TrEMBL record:
GO terms for biological process: ribosome biogenesis. The gene is CG32409. Residues 183-205 have a biased composition (Basic residues). It comes from Drosophila melanogaster. GO terms for cellular component: nucleus. This is Ribosome biogenesis regulatory protein.
């Protein structure tokens, strides 16, 4: 619902554009602006600029999410590029001449790009020779090898004690299995290993006299 039109208008398509024109049929011109400036065209340009800026930021977010390296050289535009990227682009552009930028004029407050990997981007730059000679480098490598070979391993006391206890327990279990007569040990084979099997003896059990009869009488309580 558009209050200035007193009717419902869709939020997309040509009807929306017509509704916007009906709303902004007149625009105020600022006092410090040129009176001949087309404010309608200026509004359209600002909107297109915002859309492009949002699109660039969206692409940057995708690159950052996928962990892709962005180009450090080149011109990305003042709206998209940072100050360090602009300095890098200017430094590389000035160095891309036949004189490698030695005869290029500089601005009064111009700064040079600094940081890791900047010199690799400048064409014609030569790598400086290392100030370390062969003898100190050889001695440094030998010292490193000696320190690695003479390094003593760290002793874990708790781990060593637990391993010693484990070895003692396994040794006791092995001795217990080899000794006969103990629980879990092997029984010896051969004669005399088994007990003699026979009839059980009758302890303190004799036969009653057949002539003797039980005396009948009153039972006592």
């Amino acid at each position: 619902m558009r209050p200035w039109m007193q009717k419902w208008v869709p939020t997309y398509g040509f009807k929306r554009a017509e509704a916007e024109k009906a709303k902004d049929w007149v625009l105020e011109v600022p006092q410090n602006a040129d009176p001949n400036t087309d404010m309608f065209q200026k509004k359209i340009d600002l909107r297109n600029e915002k859309v492009a800026k949002n699109e660039i930021q969206r692409m940057k977010n995708i690159v950052r999410a996928k962990k892709i390296d962005m180009p450090r050289s080149g011109y990305l535009g003042p709206e998209a590029a940072s100050s360090s990227q602009l300095l890098t682009a200017v430094t590389v552009a000035k160095s891309s001449t036949a004189s490698v930028g030695k005869f290029q004029n500089k601005l009064p407050k111009e700064k040079e790009a600094r940081g890791l990997g900047i010199k690799e981007l400048i064409p014609g730059g030569k790598r400086k020779q290392s100030h370390i000679t062969q003898t100190p480098e050889k001695e440094a490598n030998l010292d490193l090898i000696k320190s690695v070979l003479n390094k003593k391993p760290k002793l874990d006391v708790s781990k060593a004690v637990s391993m010693e206890k484990r070895d003692n327990r396994l040794a006791r279990e092995a001795e217990g299995e080899n000794e006969p007569g103990k629980k879990g040990g092997k029984k010896p084979k051969g004669k005399g290993s088994r007990k003699a099997v026979g009839k059980k003896s009758k302890g303190n059990r004799g036969q009653r006299a057949p002539a003797k009869k039980a005396q009948a009488g009153r039972k006592r309580r």
